[in-house]
Amino acid sequence: MNANLTTKVTNKEKIILGVDPGTNVMGYGLIAIKDKKLFLLQYGVIRLEKYEDQAIKLEKIFDRVSSIIDEYLPDEMAIEAPFFGKNVQSMLKLGRAQGVAIAAALSRKIPVVEYAPKKIKQSVTGNGNASKEQVAAMLMTLLDFNETPEFYDATDALGVAVCHHFQNGKVALKASTWKAFLNQNPSRLK
User: Fold this and answer.
1) Looking at residue 169, what is its pLDDT?
2) Cα Rg of the chain, angstroms
3) Under a CB-based contact definition with an 8 Å cutoff, are residues 74 and 110 in contact?
4) Fewest C-beta atoms under 10 Å: which of 40, 108, 109, 139?
5) Is the pLDDT of residue 83 over 90?
6) Is residue 72 within 8 Å of residue 41, measured between CB atoms?
7) Residue 104 DSSP SS3
């Protein structure tokens, strides 16, 4: 799904790319902030389920995230941190997908900030345990759109971008290089 909900934004203050990493469906969302108002630029998903080879999936993620960056020229990227589950193989795959998306941003000199899922839900809905449907409904109100997404990964990605905006630069962890990202996220070195 690629909603083409482009709002013309002139004299932009900032564009934020939000990413909800995934190995079968990866969500992305772009918002612009002008005069302290939020505008929806684009949201959608990168569908990867047709590729069986994990290396090809990672290549597609890198290429697509890079092309989104080249098209919309975001000032910053916010990405959802993976949550820790019981399936180690799934966690490894998700971590690789997240790492490739981060590498795409850093290769274009786009600073990256990572947010925990509960922090995103709390920022968007006021409830850290909100459902995907609740997050989507709140975003539809905040960003003034009414198309129910085919995949909640897309609205989850918008939620990451909106969370980053609401944090208003108060986040201590911002990285503009891979080394800086690893230094600020020492658990990634384990």
Assistant:
1) 52
2) 15
3) yes
4) 109
5) no
6) yes
7) helix
**Given 76, 80, 114, 156, which residue is catalytic?**
80
Q: Tell me, yes or no, if 35 is annotated catalytic.
A: no
Name the CA dihedral angle for 148, 154, 155, 159, rounded to a multiple of 10 degrees.
Answer: -170
Beta strands in the chain (DSSP E): 2-3, 14-20, 25-34, 37-47, 76-80, 112-115
Residues 3-35 pLDDT 10s = 444 444 445 589 999 999 999 999 999 999 998
The fold of 2-189 is Nucleotidyltransferase; domain 5 (3.30.420)
Q: Are strands 76-80 and 14-20 parallel, antiparallel or unpaired?
A: parallel
Q: Domain segments of the chain: what residues?
A: 2-189
- What length is written for the chain? 190
Question: Does 147 participate in catalysis according to the annotation?
Answer: no
Asked whether 171 and 160 are in contact (CB, 8 A), the reply is no
Q: Which of 20, 76, 114, 156 is catalytic?
A: 20
Q: 92-123 pLDDT, tens per residue?
A: 888 999 999 999 999 999 999 999 999 999 99
Catalytic residue flag (residue 75): no
With 60 as the cut, is the pLDDT of residue 173 above it? no
Q: Is the pTM of this model over 0.85?
A: no
Measured from the Cβ of residue 167, the count of other Cβ atoms closer than 10 Å reads 14
